[in-house]
Design a protein that fits this description.
Strand 4 and strand 5 (217-218) form a beta hairpin. The chain has a single domain (6-405), classed as Orthogonal Bundle (di-copper center containing domain from catechol oxidase), CATH 1.10.1280. The longest helix has 24 residues, at 45-68. The protein has eleven helices and eleven strands. Helices cover 34% and strands 5% of the residues. It has 406 residues and is mainly alpha-helical. Helix 10 packs antiparallel against helix 11. The strands form five sheets. It has a three-stranded antiparallel beta sheet, with no helix packed on it. It has a two-stranded parallel ribbon with strand order 1-11. It has helices at 6-21, 45-68, 101-113, 129-138, 150-169, 243-246, 252-260, 263-270, 275-282, 292-301, 329-344; strands at residues 91-92, 94-95, 176-177, 207-208, 217-218, 228-229, 235-236, 238-239, 379-380, 389-390, 404-405. InterPro entries: Di-copper_centre_dom_sf (IPR008922), Tyrosinase/Hemocyanin (IPR050316), Tyrosinase_Cu-bd (IPR002227). It holds the Pfam family Tyrosinase. GO terms for molecular function: metal ion binding; oxidoreductase activity. This is Tyrosinase copper-binding domain-containing protein.
Length: 406
Amino acid sequence: MPKLQWSNLRTLVLFGVLVSLSASTNTVHAHSLSRRVEQIPWIDYEGIKLAASEALDSDVQRRALADSAGGYPHLEAREPSTSARRCKKIEKRKEWRQLSYGEKKDYIRAIKCLQTRPDYGISPITNNLYDAFTQVHTTDFGLFHISSPFLPWHRWFVWIHNEALKHECGYTGPAPYWDYTKDYKNPTGSPIFSTDPEIGFGTHGSVVLNELGRGGFKVDNGAFANFKVNIPIPHYLTRNFTYWKEGDPDGFWGYQLGESFSPRAVQKLLSSPTFWDLEVNVDALNVTGNFGIHNSPHYLSMGDWVGPAWVAGTKFSLNGTTAPNDPMFWPHHQNVDRIFWTWQQKPGKQWEYNGKQGTHTDFPELNPPEPADAHLSDILPFFGLGPDVPVALAFKTENWPLCYTY
C-alpha cells in the first residue's frame, strides 16, 4: 500500500473541501430535499420557532443599540429574551473518563441503537437515523466548515444527536466529551480507544481493506468491532493510526498533531481576541504545519474520520464530509464545543459573532467569491434534522432548548 506523505495531506484535504464547496453556495440557506422530510416527534418545532423569533428580535435590538452608540463592542453582550421556554434542568456534560462503566456502556449502546431507528425521510440513501446524521453533515458541507458558522452549527448538530440518544434510544446519562489535552503526547493511547467490547471505541484494527485505498483498517476490536455504516456506500468502520507515524519519518507531523491539541494550544485558543480569531485558530486557517484542535484528531485517526480517505482508484476524495460515520466524532466535537463555551465565558464574548460566511479566505488556492459578513441572525441549515435555526439560538447553552453546561 503506498504511503501518504504528510507534506501532501493538506493539499489533498483542501482539494476535497473544494469538491464539496463546488456544490454549495456561499450563503447559509434552507435546503430542498428530494424526499419528503417528516417532523421528528420529539423535537418541539413550535417552541423552537418561538425561541428563534425572540432570538432574532433580540439580535435586531442589540445591533440597533450598538449602532446608536457608535458600535462599541461591549454592547455585543446583550442577552436575548428567553420567555418562550425555560430549561427544566441544566445538564452538565462530562469528560469520558468521568463516566462510570455503566454510563459508558449505555452511551455506546444508544449510539448503536440509532441504526435501528427511522431517519424520518432525511437520507435518500438509507433509512436509519445513524446514517441520517452523516447524510446531513455531507449536505452543502462548505456552508458550515472553515467559516463562522462552524462552531454554532456543530453545537446544534451535536445537541440534536444527544437528544436522539435520549428520545429514540433511552440514554439517560451525561453527554461525554474527549479532553485530548490529557492525551496529547500519545493520543491513540487514550483510554477512549480501549478495546473493551462494551465500553471501548476501539483502535484501527488489523484487517486492511483495499477497497478503501489509503484509508485503511477495519475496526475489529472494541464495542464497534465489525461495525457497518452506509454513507456514501456500505462499508465497515475504518481507521488508520499509522500514517501520522509511518508516513512521517522525521516526526514533524506526528509532533504537530499532538501539539495542536496540547494544553498550550488550548490556552492560545482561549486568548483569541474575537470570535473570528477563535474560528481561525480552531481550524488553524493561517498556520502552516498545523491542523488545529478541530482537524488534528480527525487526521490522527484517518479512515472514516477524514472521509473515509478513499483516494486510491475510487471516486471519493479526501475530505471530512462523512466524518460522523465514526462514533468518535461526537466526543470529539463535544470537546470542541466545550472550548467554544469556555471562550464565551470571557467578559463580553457570550454574544460576539463575526467573520465570514462559507469562506476559505486563508486558502488562496480555493479562490472563493467574496463571502457575506456573519451575523447572529444568519440561519443554520439542518436539512430535515429538525428546523433550521438562527445562529443566536445556538449561542448560549444554558438557554432553552439547549439546556446544558460544562
